[in-house]
Amino acid sequence: MTLLNDKQISQLAENDIFLPFIGEKRRTLDNGTKAISYGLSQAGYDIRLSSVEFLVYEPLFTTENFFDGPIVDPKNYEANVVVATLEEQEDGSCYFILPPNTYALGTSLELISMPNNVFALCEGKSTYGRCGLIANILPIEPGWIGHLTMCLINPTETPIRIYANEGIAQLVLFGIDETSKPYEGIYQKQSSRVQFAAV
């Protein structure tokens, strides 16, 4: 297994591994507004958070009824979520608010098409990590295609502003021997909307 660098990732981009593909590290939006970086880096690719949908989980329990409240079951997922409102600043940047002590599900702006000989891990960006945000690490199997659903966790006591259409996580890509068959699981060909847990 070999960690892929920027030159190798650029070569993969010729086969539309990321759509759209930004072949450099960008720190501004198209209108020149400062942005959380996205695009190609030295040893990875920084994907952006889509503005299409951001679902915030609302806990229904208190410390008094913790064990009597609802339970999140990955085999029968019925989360109590609300659609977060996309806010816009005067400079043209857009954001969602992630309340304290909860999590949200969002999707990548990019459509990802992982080749059969590439495996990827998703890591949170250090800019958000310094604000206390945790991006749940997600593997991307060889042959997987879709918009990546990501879990963003705010364990702090204060709300965190999460910017849409800007960098949210870095994909670290590894070259491997080609698999016998591409990914064919239940999360294949995810749309630009959030995909809930399923079995």
Key terms for this structure?
mainly beta; 17 strands; 199 residues; 11-stranded antiparallel β-sheet; 3-stranded antiparallel β-sheet; single chain; 42% strand
Q: What do you see in this structure?
A:
By secondary structure, the protein is mostly beta strands. It contains 2 helices and 17 strands. The radius of gyration is 17 Å and the shape is globular.
The SSE order reads EHEEEEEEEEEEHEEEEEE
The structure class reads mainly beta
Stretches with pLDDT under 50, minimum 5 residues: none
The Cα radius of gyration reads 17 Å
Total strand count, please?
17
Strand content bin: 35-45%
The biggest beta sheet, please?
Answer: 11 strands, antiparallel
Helix content: under 10%
Number of helices: 2
* Residue-averaged pLDDT: 91
Which descriptor suits the 3D outline?
Answer: globular
Distance between the termini: 29 Å
Outline:
The protein is mainly beta. It contains two helices and 17 strands.
Indicate the topology.
Blueprint: E1 2-3, H1 6-13, E2 18-19, E3 25-28, E4 34-41, E5 44-57, E6 81-83, E7 87-88, E8 94-98, E9 102-108, E10 111-113, E11 118-124, H2 126-129, E12 134-135, E13 139-140, E14 145-146, E15 149-154, E16 160-164, E17 167-175
Antiparallel strand pairs: 1-17, 2-10, 3-4, 4-5, 5-6, 5-9, 5-17, 7-8, 8-16, 9-15, 10-14, 11-13, 11-17, 12-15
